[in-house]
Amino acid sequence: MVTFKFIPFYEIENLSSAKRVNKLLKVVKEDKIVIMEGRLRSQEEADLIEITMEEISPKFKGIELSVIYPEKSQQNTLQKVKGAFATVLLGDRQGLTIIGPASIVKKIENNPDQIELFTKDNGNRNRKKNKKR
Amino acid sequence: MVKSFLISLLKKLNFNPFGRKSHVKLGLYGPPNGGKSTLANRICMDWLGEEMSSVSHIAHETREIKIKEKVSIKNKKGKELTFSLVDTPGISTKIDYEDFLKKGMKKVEAKKRAKEATKGVIDSIKWLDDMDFVVVILDATKDPYSQVNITIIGNLQARNIPVLIAANKVDLKKSSMDVIKAAFPQYNVVGISAKYGKNIEEFYDELFRLTK
């Protein structure tokens, strides 16, 4: 069985970068796949990889990470301005971030209009879920 | 975060309190097995006559930062560019020692390699702040939309570090320059085969443009 946990942006928006990363990683280490509203900052994504590496053990083999984000080049000027204001005022809550434990999620393909998440099942690779934007 | 903000601010203002550097740090970044060490060896063989790193078909062969000081390259006009070449371990989000077992390694060796590889990834990320210019080496036969690629490039962009993307392995039939260019339209992309030296002159020209 695969468990998904949705984390709305308001749950992390007031947290420091370190607390955001630790909160997400804690859920992933419980063998759940995180679907988070919005995205982390670039530096936070790097921190997430760094902390993941520090925690790797025979039981925890790392994470699979993917972000679906609106393609800015396809937005008109008004949409870009609105997005920039919303980001400044509310944080970057556009898009979705998916983080899963590498022991469960084999890979996430982002092409980028569609995300395909492949899970491992008792050592066999199965295509488990197919999401479309 | 404060440190990276100050560094990017100083870079934006083009302010260097220690005067002009005699040479700069050029980092080779990317996911594992993209060809960073093969490219590092190609550059060092072309300009120093010696190799820099060992290469392997097994991922995470480079597990520590390697630096070759004072690499000088020249262009057709005789202009010289001197830099320290920094070959970094491949950045990934997962490392499973069992993957190394499948490649024929013994358990002890595989576990050691995995442990060293995790440290290598951490070092690569920590060293981002020290780079003046970066070449991101991507395997042109693979999907470029991986989050690792996007995270590396996003972090370089946030630090205002100039980036050149080298789409490696263009000698292989499965490679696609168009896919890499479409994934990162805001960056210069040069297609190369580090192994066979294909388009390497074009790559050196792009390095001069990058560091201008």
Describe, in plain words, how this protein is organized in 3D.
The complex is a heterodimer of chains A (about 130) and B (about 210). Chain A is α+β, with helices and mostly antiparallel strands. Chain A has helices spanning about 15-30, 40-55, 75-90, and strands at about 5, 30-35, 65-70, 95-100, 105-110, 115-120, 125-130. Chain A has a four-stranded mixed beta sheet, covered by helices on one side. The longest helix of chain A is centred in the middle third of the chain and has 14 residues, at about 40-55. Chain B contains seven helices and six strands. Chain B is globular and about 55 Å long. Classes of the chains: A alpha+beta (about 130), B alpha/beta (about 210). Chains A and B meet through α2, β3 and β5 of A and α4 and α5 of B.
Provide the domain count of chain B. Answer: 1
So, the CATH homologous superfamily of chain B?
Answer: P-loop containing nucleotide triphosphate hydrolases
What percent of the residues of chain B sit in helical stretches (DSSP H or I)?
A: 25-40%
Oligomerization state: heterodimer
User: In one word, what is the shape of chain B?
Assistant: globular
CA(first)-CA(last) distance of chain B: 28 Å
Termini Cα gap of chain A: 24 Å
Structure summary, number of beta strands of chain B: 6
- Helix fraction of chain A by DSSP (H/I, runs of at least 4): 25-40%
Biggest interface and its residues per chain?
Answer: A-B, 27 and 30 residues
Taking the sheet with the most strands of chain A, its summary is: 4 strands, mixed
Strand content of chain A: 25-35%
**Poorly predicted parts of chain B:** 16-20
Low-confidence stretches of chain A: 128-133
Q: What is the typical, i.e. mean, pLDDT of chain B?
A: 90
- Average pLDDT level of chain A: 82
**Radius of gyration computed on alpha carbons of chain B:** 17 Å
Order of helices and strands of chain B: HEHEEHHEHEHEH
